[in-house]
Design goal:
Its main location: membrane. About 50% of the residues lie in helices and about 20% in strands. With about 325 residues, it is an alpha/beta fold.
Length: about 325
């Protein structure tokens, strides 16, 4: 009886040893497999597959009806929608654009001009907003005329009776809240252009009047800025600005967001940062010329992304759902 029990006991021990050995082998095998996964780049938990979180996914983007903003905004919108956001563009004037972002009623904007043109807005709201990145590093502004006009500097306007009477002493402007309009008012004061007045309208109305005057080779003075399709389609020149009222070499056109944007919508912040790193004057000019030739802004943006899939991939890689 005892021999039988001893035999059964030895058998049980043997079975247990075999079982433990088998478990140990399985554990080693699993460790090697996990190590292999880590060596291949953490495919289950790495940044490239898990992605940056969307956070708040409904975004409002205010913009002003200026050519550049109307080209950039649809492009940004479509890229953000690629990674899962819902984007509502909202056309406003410059003051409302800055105020809505500073109050966190809007997520970000694509049309700030700093340091000169929107200086007053920056001074007012700088504690509530931050620059995410620049679409264009140098965007010059100045009084602008057709190249056939015999003036080369803002100083040439002072006391210029012949030219003044030919244009009714008026500078044809855009919407009154625009920074370039504020600069032009300052230029009138700084250069002593006593009889001259800045006539506000809209960008569309100004461009229509500019084209009409050029067609008849008549004089006209406008506040101009680059990049803009008018410089590609019309023979224009910017007047010299020795007092640098318009900011010298030019402003930065930047994406400005509320200070909470990065935390609220981290993926959108990352997309916007990447996009502004690649965006430049050449890219904007392509969009502007397409739009001026009759293509809807949204269609121009779609075509650009279709023609540049490498950029879209770069801007959205590892981001979103």
């Amino acid at each position: 009886m005892f021999k039988k029990l001893r035999f059964l006991g030895l058998a049980a021990v043997l079975v247990l040893v075999i079982a433990l050995a088998a478990c140990g082998g399985g554990s080693d095998e699993g460790s090697e497999s996990d190590s292999g996964s880590d060596d291949s780049g953490n495919s289950d938990g790495g940044d490239s597959s898990s992605g940056v979180e969307l956070g708040e996914s409904e975004l409002t983007v205010p913009y002003v009806a200026w050519a550049g903003a109307m080209a950039r905004t649809p492009l940004v919108k479509q890229v953000l929608e690629e990674v899962g956001y819902t984007v509502e563009p909202k056309q406003v004037d410059a003051g409302a654009m800055w105020t809505s972002v500073a109050n966190d009623d809007s997520s970000f904007m694509t049309a700030s001009w700093l340091p000169a043109t929107h200086q007053s807005y920056w001074e007012k709201y700088q504690d509530d907003v931050e620059a995410v990145g620049a679409f264009v590093d140098k965007a010059p502004l100045a009084m602008t005329v057709p190249s056939y006009m015999d003036v080369n500097s803002i100083e040439d306007l002072k006391g210029n009776k012949e030219l003044g009477e030919a244009v009714d002493w008026e500078i044809t402007g855009i919407d009154p809240g625009a920074g370039v309009m504020q600069n032009t008012e300052t230029a009138i004061e700084e250069y002593g252009l006593d009889k001259w007045e800045l006539k506000p309208s809209s960008e569309g109305a100004m461009l229509s009047e500019l084209q009409k005057k050029i067609d008849n080779e008549e004089p006209i003075i406008i506040p101009g800025w680059k990049p803009h399709w008018m410089f590609a389609e019309m023979d224009l020149k910017m007047l010299e600005d020795p007092k640098e009222v318009y900011g010298g070499e030019g402003d930065r056109i930047e994406a400005i967001a509320h200070t909470s944007f990065k935390e609220d919508s981290p993926a959108a912040y990352e997309v916007l940062k990447r996009l502004t790193e690649d965006y430049d004057t050449e890219m904007e000019n392509k969009l502007l010329v397409e739009i001026n030739n009759g293509t809807e802004a949204a269609d121009a943006a779609s075509q650009f992304l279709e023609d540049n899939p490498d950029l879209l991939e770069k801007w959205t890689e590892g981001i979103g759902e």
